[in-house]
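Hey L., structure's done. Input below.
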Amino acid sequence: MKKGLFVFTILLLALCSCSNDEQLLEMIPHDATGVVCFDLQKILKKSGIENDGKIELPQELQNTIKQNDDASWCGIIKNLPNMGIDPKSKAYCFMTTKTYGLSFLVCLDDDSQAIDFIQRQNGTKAKEADGYNYIYLGDYFYAVKDGVLFVGRFNRPIDEQGALKAAKRLFAKTDESIKTDKDIEEQLEEGDVSAFFKVKGLKTLLDMSETYRDIASKFPLITLFTESDIDAFSFNATATEKEIDIKTKIKAAKTSEYATLMNLTLGQPSASVLLAIPNSMKYIASMSVKGNEFVKLPQVGQIVKVIQSMPYFDRLDIASMLNDVDGPIAVGMSPDPTFVGQWNAVIAAKVKSPKLIISKISHFATGLGQAPELYDNEYVYEYNNKAIVVGERQNVLYIKMLDYEQTEGYANTIPGLNQFFNGNKFGLVLQTAANQKNGFFTYGLKDPYNAEGKFYCSDTKANPLLYLMECVCSIKPDSQFSQENFDLMPTE
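Output:
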């Protein structure tokens, strides 16, 4: 099957829709493990793409597409005006454990136009049966009937007739629908994009991604959220004139293992680690912990075992170092602009005894024949093309792994970040760049049950939703990663 067909079909035809959203909700089964709703009317209007009922790409977005024509998302967005879009509807994505794992539903203005598009993208001809036009191809099934498009990806191999029968059952609305759960229906009415996931549903979605599986194997802490006894997540994102606001609620019993672990291990939030992280780092993540409890987590034990399984690292007592942490542990990372596939990174942690830990690291390195140079109160080591610098500032221990001499300032000078990290026990910041403007995405966990995020542009006059599209269109294909690493959302 052609790479990118699934996303092209979803994101383009999802916008070619009618205004009758109720029939789509009635097609989503009540036992769906996750549902996402896109309010296309709000999204297109707020981004400036829709004006007076017409879909037109603003000039700045057109310019970005021209400059980044090889970027995957450019091919998606530049086709929007050519699809006969009715910008007054909603589109839905949902997950089940039945025949179809991940499915999309949208209404159509013109069935024949939709069918022609699907045929062109597939390079095959649709079949007809009982009023349905459908294509059965690879892991996917496409069906168009009475102004509705259904696209589904199979949970397991199934023959053509079985796939058609399962799709017909959805169209017939014979099963109890998601509309019977008023809490979920109300959640899906909030925001420009809204979602509700049972943890089982989120895990189903993530398990389809090789990227997630790889991340979870290297950073098992993520499983505290994805594989715990949390009941559900609810999510909504709303664009304003200045920013995109994101809110997440985590539903879990106060006696749950998740709540107990979070209350035991999460420490007092602090922005102190920003003193050691260069302001050029594209990604910054911080988690405030009580080290003596944090080190007891099975997931942390897995990380320690992985590190100590590496040559020579069995000599380094990682657990005792983590036990000394009293506050945030942060990582700042940026892709190396010179060496493809390499990263510059900084690790920083607020600890009780920074000098003692530095002494342990120095003793470890000296034992490997890497006696450090002492320069400006920092210990400097050489490793391949990078200088590894170990030091401390105000009880913040840091390890820098950079292949350049740092001349830039520190992240504590970036407006808003101090306040953000001081207020969140877990925080994530991503910096983006497009059209000579910088964008910031922040997402933080205030307590075990509530998380909030924002996306905003350094240019306060910029439309945040439109700028987000510009950033997405600026993402270049990376030869490092195979397409399979993004198998959840394949693109051209």
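Confidence is low (pLDDT under 50) at residues 478-492. Residues 295 and 301 are 7 Å apart (CA to CA).

-- N.
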